[in-house]
């Protein structure tokens, strides 16, 4: 199934004879997408210079929203072991499907009062996005740290002899302890190198105790041996073992060590489960908040760009076109065909009637009007923005 893509379009009412939304829906075409009303309040307009600055700020904030939403989506998928279907179930806005929220969008007048200056609204949205982004990042970072620690503890219990804990494996009676001159080393040898080990371990360095090798344990890949040497040649012996691709293991017998390791594993398991739940809840909340903030940012972008393009009195229709990435190209082509004349000299038609752009005229008109295509967006003759959710 193709992902949903949303397109926001704003057009001046003066170009319509009647029923602007119905006319726009006909232009888009039912096969290409569903056209829905997207109500935008009347905000304080302010000065032209202010609007141009707001347009720039909103373009940057829009990019930040897109990145934050994508980050939350990645975090949710990651915490759910890459299960996209389960992650999709968590992507709710106000406990309803994200699609329902966008299709029935209403500006939150309690949270963002429409009678406040645009700059203040933009600043509030920016702060909210930053806060939720920071919270989500911190919680998922905490979870990943705990998950890594737990995995390390589990490897100690279930890994092979080169990585797992030796506490439950090594009988302390095999070790020379509290000797002034002698020391026992634990060496992990690949099973296919056992013969080489038996043949050469006594002669790797001087002062290896003859026939001191004892097999301690074996698994599918490795064999663990205990070997006793004089302390003065211990460092050299361990280095020679490494050169042979044999792995020395550090081990010190501690009374009750096995029980303590199990308690530590149990603690980490409980902590991982607890923080997993917290991260999932915060991921859900993060998705809801970042999508809501993004929708309000795009609504403000539409308003600001509509004033800059179509001027006053402010009479326009704004619609949400619900489509797919594949059909979106057809929607754009249909809109260009019907409304490119709004771009004046910047757009024309070739001999076959196809819409063309005069880039030189386009650039000068944009500069004169204080308009920009926005970050990563192609300039259009009308107000046009896309939202594609991960």
From TrEMBL:
One of its GO terms (cellular component) is vacuolar proton-transporting V-type ATPase, V1 domain. This is V-type proton ATPase subunit C. It comes from Trichocladium antarcticum. SUPFAM superfamilies: Vacuolar ATP synthase subunit C (SSF118203). Subunit of the V1 complex of vacuolar(H+)-ATPase (V-ATPase), a multisubunit enzyme composed of a peripheral complex (V1) that hydrolyzes ATP and a membrane integral complex (V0) that translocates protons. V-ATPase is responsible for acidifying and maintaining the pH of intracellular compartments. Subunit C is necessary for the assembly of the catalytic sector of the enzyme and is likely to have a specific function in its catalytic activity. Reversibly leaves the enzyme after glucose depletion, causing the catalytic subcomplex V1 to detach from the V0 section. One of its GO terms (molecular function) is proton-transporting ATPase activity, rotational mechanism. Belongs to the V-ATPase C subunit family. PANTHER family: V-TYPE PROTON ATPASE SUBUNIT C. Keywords: Hydrogen ion transport, Ion transport, Transport.
